[in-house]
Write a structure and sequence with these properties.
260 residues; eight-stranded parallel sheet; 10 strands; two-stranded antiparallel sheet; homodimer; globular; 42% helix
Chain lengths: 260, 260
């Protein structure tokens, strides 16, 4: 404990507070467009370490078979890159989808059972019983679980940030994610400082970020303070403040080399 | 006031909290070596906006004529790049030199009168009467004054940092400089936060940095929080944590473009 290395292995990578990984989102609406988006991302000079499919953007999300078939198509294109499967909740700025929480849990179960995803992202806002259901089945099938909190309005207090990250850990998450919006530059420093404090007391890898323009700084330097994954723009961005992967990796390379 | 643009014009550049400038030090011991060092710096792909001559490294510092003659040699090579003249005090990790404070003030006066320097760096540790003497004559000859504070042991409290920057302003400095050593990563965030706070209440441009490995981060992103000048390594570095100018400018370019 206390800023020591904490990592989880997913396929060929280790997500840890010692070796930051870069994730790029897929946000297309159809299988055809998703394949094209993924192929474009993989043809760039900087490759992501992880890919997240933001399934709330998928037009056929209510057709479980279409989701499963799309996963079967994406999997071989990804090769060994781990896939995060995320249906971002409308309450946390996901797209509006024709599934209620129960419907979402049913879809996630089928997706887990397909073994075509490596990591699920599920929001802390769900009921504890839904979270436990997802945790149990994901453990059974060897799928890692991110429990996440997003706030697009403000950066809560350091105590609240720590509370949310603790909550993810105590509910059994493999990774705790928190994304908040800064209202000024001091909020970006607050998020970084809270990440540093959380790292000293929480025993799972953390994924934290400050969003928007000012927050883009945290996407570039957050790993120094213990954020294990940062999200970059590939073909598209999925949240405010993501920057192109080439620029992100250029900055991270220089910062990581000197800042120690 | 309050994070608005505050700038001072020196030759063709404006040093302000809105447009960060990069300064590279000269640390050679002889005129010949200084000329070579400067020419090397100016032949690199990334040019500095400012050059600082760290005169405490100069072997003939006790011979005023040698110092003045060296300035006459350097000036045309610099073209329009402003020159900072610094005899870093031994108490703040400058080289050991055969001049006492009085001798240093006498040398600085002659240098100011030569009009071959644009900016002087003088430490706050000097007596108020020495500082006033230097301030008066530098104003008379149109030379800008940095009043500086360095701490190689620790990062003092935010209140102390603000006090030192205020002190520089109230003693009539054109620029207030503060360089401190972090003992952990939180100290780097503390320095950045203090810079942001100082910017809201101090009406001269600030030059702040956290030193050493962790502190190198502040050299790359400090301008976001209101530091107007950052020091990079050209041929040599003059303080711990300076990184090569090419890398510094690459990071600053990406950070400044996104972080707003």
């Amino acid at each position: 404990m206390g800023n020591t290395a904490i990592g989880i292995k997913v396929r060929n990578i280790t997500i840890s507070n010692e070796s930051p990984q870069v994730c790029v989102p897929l946000v297309s609406e159809t299988e055809e467009a998703l394949v094209a988006e993924l192929k474009n991302i993989l043809s760039r000079t900087s490759l992501p370490d992880l890919i997240e499919w933001r399934v709330d953007f998928f037009a056929d999300i209510q057709k479980t078979d279409s989701v499963l078939s799309c996963l079967k198509t994406l999997r071989p294109i990804l090769k060994e890159i781990p896939l995060i499967f995320t249906i971002r909740a409308e309450e946390e700025r996901g797209e509006i989808i024709p599934l209620n929480h129960q419907g979402k849990v049913e879809l996630l179960k089928r997706v887990i059972q397909s073994r075509d995803v490596d990591i699920l992202d599920f929001e802390l806002l769900h009921t504890e019983s839904f979270i436990k259901e997802i945790r149990e089945i994901s453990s059974e099938y060897g799928v890692k679980l991110i429990l996440s909190y997003h706030n697009f309005d403000e950066t809560p207090s350091t105590a609240f940030i720590l509370k949310k990250l603790h909550e993810s850990e105590s509910l059994g998450a493999d990774l705790a994610k928190l994304a908040v919006m800064p209202n000024d530059k001091a909020d970006v420093l607050k998020l970084l400082n809270a990440t540093l404090e959380a790292n000293a007391v929480i025993n799972i890898p953390l994924i934290t970020m400050s969003m928007g323009g000012y927050g883009s700084l945290s996407r570039m330097i957050g790993s120094i303070f213990g954020s294990a994954v940062t999200f970059a723009k590939g073909d598209n961005s999925s949240a405010p403040g993501q920057i192109p992967i080439e620029e992100l990796k250029a900055v991270m390379n220089i910062v990581d080399r000197h800042c120690k």
